[in-house]
Amino acid sequence: MVNRIRIGVGWTDPKKRKPVLRRRGYMLRSCGQPGRLGCLSEPPLLSRLPPYFPEPYFSVSLSGSGHGAAATEPRKRGGSDVPPSALGEFTETPLLFPCWVSASLLVSSSEDDYFRCESVVRNWADASSERGIKEDELTLKDILFFLHVPRTGGRTYFHCFLRKIYTSAQECPRSYDKLRFDPSKPNCRLVVTHDDYSLMSKLPKDMTSVVTILRDPVDRVFSTYEFSVEVAARFLVHPNLTSVAQMSRRIRPKSRAVSTLDIWPWKYLVPWMRGDLFARRDARELGRLRKTQEFSNPYDMEDMVMPLHEFINDPIAHDIIHNGATFQVAGLTNNSYAVESHHVRSCVRKHPELGHFVLEVAKYRLDHMLYVGLTEEHRKSATMFAKLVGAQVLSQSEALNSTFKQETSNQTEPSSSFSDSEADGLNQIEGSTNNQSDSEVPSSTHVEPARENMTVGRLMEIYETCISSLRKTQASRRTLSLKRVAPANFSKKARLSVPATILQQIQYLNSLDVELYKHAQNIFIRREKHIMQSAEIFIQPEDLQAEACGSSYGCPPWKSLLVIALLAIVVLITLFVLTGRRTNKVKK
To answer: Bias regions of kind Polar residues — which residues (predicted)?
Structure first.
């Protein structure tokens, strides 16, 4: 009776024309009998091999209950037979012989699916690499597409930079609502959206420049988790989810603005987290709440909020968050315009090693963007943005000055900009149904700065003032929101309490984003000097004075007096020292 089987797996490398052995630790499970190992529990990890390898060959060694020699019979799976000597054992375990049929079919199905997926992903990658005539990536074109990767600080750039140099009339309407997005609007010159790169299919490619900001993947996952909790917690003022739904139905028809719940990815993440928070609150009311003093890690308070380790392992996180920057730059989010995006995403999830095709496309697109900023290099990134992008927009604005003066004041359609989507919620759920939600897109009648006198130096001054005010507002709103899930109080200091194993897992789950971020860092370093030199041709003479005085309108009187006083002190000290030396020489 056969009660032991040895399976050898081998491949022939078509490039070297000789057998190549690859052992894989296949996981076995019981064939209907608890405690007995037999059939393969999942497809073997054959897809880890280089893509040019053909289907594998198998040899099966069967042993009886005694200790006699095994009978070996090679099994062919395409191509020529591989001699038994080229095959190796990878497991030896008791099982029933009929289970080998199941294993063979499973391996064949897995390999067929891998090669099908490889073809799908490779074809998409080839079509996505526009190897056309290389243009000057540092020259701003007619339309600026700000590809906003969530939780990278893009909202700050929009409110504190772009809204200072573009008018409402120049913003393309409803960028976040692709069903109503209309880039054909007259004077449409600015698109700011969480949509992925596939939106380029709706824009004139030869007239559009793309900019984006990337962030360290681990920090971005932390921030996504924290923001999801923060916004979802604002709904806890309601007694239950039914009340939330009723309030939303009453408010939504009255507002034309775009809510966070209409924006990718928050339209998926916030309802998910909101439902989880209500479920945990109900559980606490049933008496399962631990004492707050037992909580030492705010990222692992399972009775209050979804723990971080649970968040990162949920299928929703795998689908939307992990490697999100890479898929967004590649144009493959679950909100993509590309018809093949679903198939490519599905294949990469099933066969992670195919992700390198997606990564290469994302790298290529970063290389050809007008600007790539880094959240961690905030000051340098902002300065580069002002001198490169801002300076060119201002230069173009001089030719369109008459358009700025004709800015319409009766515009009613919301702008393309995002809501306070990185620090928002629904104000209405606080009990007010009359006030405009701070989660909505700000009114298109925002105050227009005086662009006639705008310079790069002045733009940086406005930016610094703007972000200071914006951060205070965000901090206040965040504190108020997190009180509802106290003692969960997220901060950079609190992140230090997260175990290293969790951090390593986040890095592993975001391996494509890690590589893309490294590439972005290299672009940033490589372009910094080049961009600054190129931007100098756009800097107006007044900015040289602004850099020295801190103002584009000349040095203020108090600064001038301070400079004169310092120079006078230096001169007096110098004269005193020289006079003292001469006196000493005369005495000698």
So the answer is: 402-420, 429-446
